[in-house]
Amino acid sequence: MVQGPVTVTVTGAAGQIGYALLFRIASGHLLGPDVPVKLRLLEITPALKAAEGTAMELADCAFPLLQSVDISDDPRVAFDGANVALLVGARPRTKGMERGDLLEANGGIFKPQGEAINAVAADDVKVLVVGNPANTNALIAQAHAPDVPAERFTAMTRLDHNRAISQLASKLEVPVTAIKKLTIWGNHSATQYPDLFHTEVNGKIAAEQVDEAWLKDTFIPTVAKRGAAIIEARGASSAASAANAAIDHVFTWVNGTAEGDWTSAAIPSDGSYGVPEGLISSFPVTAKDGKFSIVQGLEIDAFSRERIDASVAELGEERDAVRGLGLI
Ligand code: NAD
Ligand code: LMR
């Protein structure tokens, strides 16, 4: 049970995900319906005015749980006392741009933010990186926060997880609640691997309820490329669904997973499933007492092994690239 008030810092607060996220945090969806919240918003200087506009709207909602809203363009101010840090602010991918191109553009943002979290956040800070490339940005922030336990730095693959559940539910014509134990492995990118071989639908393995061609040629690419499809359709990257997934990620982290189920989150690898230690990779995870744990003992067949390895190899390349840029 979380005691309030909880200080939540949101970076990129004036952006489109920020706009979809802040009102749900303030209304109690991030932590629970009884937990008071103090919001701290970080923006770059030119966007401070827009952030102030959002703060005016937050005030106009008269949310019972919202105790305060503070805005700053200084990470050392914005992360002061943060119990939860949502690192959303980054440059979104635009049409035709590969995520790898974002490494250099965004890497520089996460170093000073990691340093500030190290210096001024609360001892129990939990960090979720949403800004892309999320896994590697989380690695950069973590590298600059040596006093914060490494496992507190996580990256978001819950949106991919939710997308996969939705696609499978639609295919099998079942409610989303019938689906348990779905896993996204690897990177939040087109190489991610949504795994149906341990997923249960009404208690039966999902991969056995769909044909192999659909799984391979429709399901996996649809989930993995959904972000690009949204960009193509909206002319902007996903926002409300991304904010919703960020809420889900933190809510689960704080309040735990249900008995008999798990979720997906990118967390620092302990070497499980052959993922090199330290890479922030998506795994099947349970949460209890404010801690994620990797689900152990799953059998990985050759089909899954190949796809997990490919996504993990990409994470290794991204890590090497930011290392080469002196960012970690
Ligand atoms: P946006 O451009 O609407 O907003 C980004 C905001 O971040 C802007 O207001 C900008 O001023 C701010 N910002 C930039 N640099 C900053 C810094 N150093 N400190 C604080 N704020 C800063 O973008 P968006 O649509 O809200 O998306 C944000 C990020 O989330 C993008 O990187 C996008 O690719 C990513 N994203 C991730 C997922 C996921 O599943 N992990 C899903 C969707 C989007
Ligand atoms: C998404 O999955 O919707 C985003 O990460 C897309 C992107 O690359 O910005």
Automatic annotation (TrEMBL):
Q: Where does substrate bind?
A: 93, 99, 132, 163
Q: Where are the transmembrane segments?
A: none
Which domain of life does the protein's organism represent?
A: Bacteria
Q: Which GO terms describe its molecular function?
A: L-malate dehydrogenase (NAD+) activity
- Tell me what reaction this enzyme catalyses: (S)-malate + NAD(+) = oxaloacetate + NADH + H(+)
Q: Which UniProt keywords apply?
A: NAD, Oxidoreductase, Tricarboxylic acid cycle
Q: Where does NAD(+) bind?
A: 12-18, 106, 113, 130-132
* E.C. code: 1.1.1.37
Note the PANTHER family from the entry.
MALATE DEHYDROGENASE
NCBIfam families given in the database record? MalateDH-SF1 (TIGR01759), PRK05442.1 (NF003916)
- HAMAP family given in the database record: Malate_dehydrog_2
Q: What is this protein called?
A: Malate dehydrogenase
Q: Which organism is it from?
A: Cryptosporangium phraense
Q: What is the taxonomic lineage of the source species?
A: Bacteria, Bacillati, Actinomycetota, Actinomycetes, Cryptosporangiales
Q: Which gene encodes it?
A: mdh
